[in-house]
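The methods section describes the discrete structure representation at length, but only in general terms. The central task, working out the structure tokens from the amino acid sequence alone, is never made concrete. Nothing conveys this as quickly as seeing an actual entry. For illustration, here is how one protein appears when written out as sequence plus structure tokens:
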Amino acid sequence: MVNVIGLGYIGLPTALMMAAHGVEVIGTDYNKKLVDTLNAGHTTFKEKGLDELFANAVKAGVRFTTEYQVTDTYIVSVPTPYDKFSKKIDACYVVAAVKSVMEVCPKGATVVIESTISPGTIDKFVRPVIEENGFKIGEDIHLVHAPERIIPGNMVYELLHNNRTIGADNREIGEKVKEYYASFCQGEIVVTDIKTAEMTKVVENTFRAVNIAFANELAKICRHDGMDVYEIIKICNMHPRVNILQPGPGVGGHCISVDPWFLVGDYPALTKVIGESMKTNDGMPDFVLNRIYEIMKEKGLKDITKVGLYGLTYKENVDDIRESPTLQLLESQERHLATGLKVYDPFITDDVVKNQYHDLDKFLNDVDMVVVMVKHNEIKENADKLANKVILDCQNVIDLPEVYHI
């Protein structure tokens, strides 16, 4: 039996996928409300294909509880934030989960850390905790790192098809853990050592962050000198060896906006390009805020409460608001002692910010200027409703005669 610890955006789909493919699974989370919701037959977030997967897993016998289980395999999938001052990983949730596992696990159990961690995290934080509690690693507890590699909005497909990495001290243990993931994963599964597995996951997200930063920096250069960044990128991408990404209002989620900082925190003298790239991405919400004020001045708009931000999530067509550029922009506005921007997102049904709307038409009726922060399908399909508005399109998706861009 596998006990999956942490039933959030990664842990829950992993638990459901294994259960639906014949693995006996019990999911554990400290959040009783979340566990009660799952036991009542409801998923806790929106995701394409998740409800069907949930139904199949329940039929196969998946169970949910707040209690850690006595079993031979644990998969830890808890958050890994970073310290915003030092940029180093905060491994407190991983450490707490491992400590709880040690209270119930039998000798010989395998603990799989699926949370994204910086290279060396298991050496610095996990091994000492295990040894301090009287367990011998390699005999009493086996350690494995199997970083997730999925994205909100396409989780179910990517769980099935993406390649995976298994890092283990012992090759034989790594192969055993590989069998669990191979129960559903149709991609290639590579077994390597733990530190390599830690590093590869962080490097993948860092590569993406640096490339996004390049596009965002181009946008700033082009804005400064009156050039069309989208036309320039389109022409450059006609070159067979060039593939520049599109600029945007910032980077969110719990991967690209967080993981590269782990490297900056641990290797500050060796990560100049990465550090500057992250600063560029983190600066985009402020850049958008400045564009809002520039356009308001140009169009003679004086009332900030007549400006609306479309989109609260960090990417299109999901309900995930973690580290979203819109939240960053609102926080920046408050730091400048200004408030009043209206906000709407079709995927966010709870009130999470001030001046939040839950109906597109009412939102548009109450604003004179719309800032497209997220390219949900809804706004692309309703672009005609923006025809009489001042538009700042941060995603380059609105095809109307007069549109401002970042």
The chain has two domains: 2-201, 223-251+283-405. The mean pLDDT is 95. Residues 194-224 form the longest helix (31 residues). The CA atoms of residues 27 and 192 lie 27 Å apart.
